[in-house]
Known about the structure:
The protein is an alpha+beta fold. Helix content is 42%, strand content 20%. The chain has 2 domains: 1-38 and 90-318, no CATH class; 352-480, Sandwich (Immunoglobulin-like). The strands form 5 sheets. Strands 8, 9, 10, 12 and 14 form a 5-stranded antiparallel sheet that branches. Strands 13-11-15-16 form a 4-stranded antiparallel sheet, with no helix packed on it. Strands 3-4-5 form a 3-stranded antiparallel sheet, with no helix packed on it. A hairpin with a 7-residue loop joins strand 15 and strand 16 (462-471). Helix 1 (2-14) runs antiparallel to helix 14 (288-299), helix 3 (71-89) packs antiparallel against helix 16 (326-347) and helix 6 (134-159) packs across helix 8.
Amino acid sequence: xxEAVLKGKEYLKSWVPWRLKxxxxxxxxxxxxxxxxxxxxxxxxxxxxxxxxxxxxxxxVQFDMQELYLMPFxxxxxxxxxxxxxxxxxxxxxxxxxxxTIFRVIYRDLIETKxxxxxxxxxxxxxxxxxxxxxxxxxxxxxxxLWIALAFIAVSNLMWYFVPPxxxxxxxxxxxxxxxxxxxxxxxVAFVVADIVFIKENxxxxxxxxxxxxxxxxxxxxxxxxxxxxxxxxxxxxxxxxNFTKQKELQKIEENAECTTCESCVTVCPTHIDIRKGLQxxxxxxxxxxxxxxxxxxxxxxxxLVRWSSDKEVIMQxxxxxxFRPKVLGYIAILIIVSVILGVMGSKKEYMLLxxxxxxxxxxxxxxxxxxxxxxxxxxxxxQNTLNxxxxxxxxxxxxxxxxxxxxxxxPTKPFLARPGVKKKTIxxxxxxxxxxxxxxxxxxxxxxxxxxxxxxxxxxxxxRKSTFTYPRYDIIxxxx
Length: 481
């Protein structure tokens, strides 16, 4: 036994708690979240959904709001990804990536415990500070003021994904002209402060819908923080009533039970549950209980009674956890398919938007000086430059075989300028002096294709739009002659 204890103590010296790993991961996420909005290539962001300029930036490519058909695919990636992670690792998102959890760790563990000493130990999250003492009341005010300052940074960081930093601070300098932005920041900050300081983990337990969703996603191979009753003993009966409070009482019934009933796994839990009850909706897979039990049992030379494992491996004891099972592979396949679709659709981005509408009058017919008859069709071109620099645009008319060159551009006669993000409305007139069709019964609708392009970048900035040219009946032509 003494040798096992020595080995356990040696193991604890080199062991890195899950809590510290989470802290490192929190730092990584925070740096990424704060830094991403500042990274641009040619003025384009990694992700930006700008309601102000009606733009979507995705992986340094800029899309107009009319191209928001990409957003459903982004949302699918988000939700399917979270569901897939839940099937595989339970509520690992809640414990390792959720802003609510990260903010609570910053406020409770860093500000209240480490900086101000309001809480005595990080490992005891059940004992709240005594706010009746005047000294603690002052410390609490300081803690709230510090958190308000951090909340403004966090909310500003969130807003940078909707209002880019290069515009955000300019808008803040003119608050009277940007009341919606200022009001949104203040409202969200107020919610974040109320949530983290007063609602606390009750948000996870009672408000967040994710805990309800997870119950239908779990299966026997889902990995979670789980207590081993075969080694530790059954602390609770089938009705979740506690049977034992001391190890001696437990061992009278279950002689080989290893649980010391030290309650370390309970006092450290941020959502105030006892992991020994089994699966509970409130568990966020932060693995604090695993750390607590590893420390206690390690000193006794034994492995932890609480492990990050599955029901199949710990409770049912039917073999090793199967990670790549059909359900997980299905989620992976769906994510790959959606990613491919998103990539293909994103690669077809058009660097200008063009809508073509014909005027209400189908055509006009007029006799020319050389006795020929000219037929005009008028169109309204609504063009938008989706790039960040000015471009001059013009277009060509691609005509059916046999009519090439007979339908010409009568207006405009030269390229026109379109500035970034500004919709340019242009009247276009196509005409012909040739007899295209000799049909005395009806007008003839001739299919044409408009090729519009930037004259300084014809290879990149070019779009094709289908349209028609209406040619009148032959008797109308004869009458105009």
